[in-house]
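Posted in: Structural Biology > Protein-Ligand Complexes

Title: Requesting predicted complex, pyridoxal-5'-phosphate in pocket

I'd be grateful if someone could produce the 3D structure tokens for the following input. Sequence and ligand are given below.
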Amino acid sequence: MTRRVDDWADLVPYLLARDGRWHNLATGMPMAHPPVAERVREAFRDAVDHESFATRVGSYHGVLGDPDLRKSLALLYGDRFGLPISAEEVLITPGAQAAFHAVSALTAARGRRVVFFGPEYPGYRTHPEAAYDMLLPDVAELGDREFRYVPPAGRLDEGVGAVIVSRPGNPSGNVIGDEEIAALAAECASAGALLVVDNAYAPVIPGLAFGEMGMPWGDNVMLVQSFSKGALAGERLGFVFAAPPVIEELSELQSRVSTFPAQLVQLAATFLLSDDRYVKLCEQELRGLYAERHRLVRERLDAEVEVPFRLHAVDGGQFQWIHLPELRVPAAELFFTLRDRGVLLAPSTPFYLPHLHEDPHARQSFRIGVTAPVAAIEAGLGIFAEVVNEHA
Ligand SMILES: Cc1ncc(COP(=O)(O)O)c(C=O)c1O
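-- Reply #1 --
Done. Output follows.
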């Protein structure tokens, strides 16, 4: 039987592989930047030294999260994006992932579907009782080497309870335009659905988008945020901006699952935001490092891949998405050839629901992680190019 990587679960065992057996370009590990880590260390020191330390870590707290942190996040994002948000519209969560699972649980409880536009991050599909659906975007070709996915308009019906999009996208790197995302929010509102925008790579924190971008807002919009890519992945700190009724529903679920989010990291985050050093380190230095890695990946692909390919426009995030229209062997199978030759890349299939697995982009694309060390990117893409040159 032919071996294939069809499900995200098939890939998960490889994502954390760091033992040197493979050049791991499949991983979603954030890029480490010592100055950001140092700023985080300093904030934790301040948190440990703070007079409230013993009460913080030794007692129970409110489900919504630390009031000072909620206030500073509302200010930071409200100012940056011109959004009318106050602390009332903020919920702190143990990572963005907790919020996605809550969306699935609430949508399943309403008997409605969660909809994505493929390819999309498989980590949203967590709930055994949720019905997930996926639509294909339009593909706009840009020049001879790039394309962009454009969410289809007019495809949502009353059975849709939530639409989740990553922006910048994982795996595509797409930042859906401000007008398109506003139109999608309006279409969701007409269908009675929530638009959930995953800002795990977006400005302000961690600031890994390469152009200016606005944020949609409305009673049916939920912005999901994460400190993970800003040197805090291990501490599980996320936050949600949404209208108070949505925050209330989410917090009710949060109270049942985790009671309230962990305290010390929230205090450290409050210190991190007490001046602009952390935000600047993220939005300038960290973003600069990601941009350099993206340039390196692009340069290696242009130099070494001799068969036709197109890349999704890179608007931000930590991945590049390559489509090879003449690839004869499905990416889901070629994963093992690549692995056995020493390089790991995420094949396209797990980013689609099964009914779309025969779509050309679902069959013939790979997600390339840019956060691996430079030597791994160079060697790994060299092997990748040799293999795809032989198979198209
Ligand atoms: C698109 C996207 N959203 C969310 C997350 C997870 O965020 P968190 O660590 O805050 O749960 C990831 C993790 O890699 C991701 O790629």
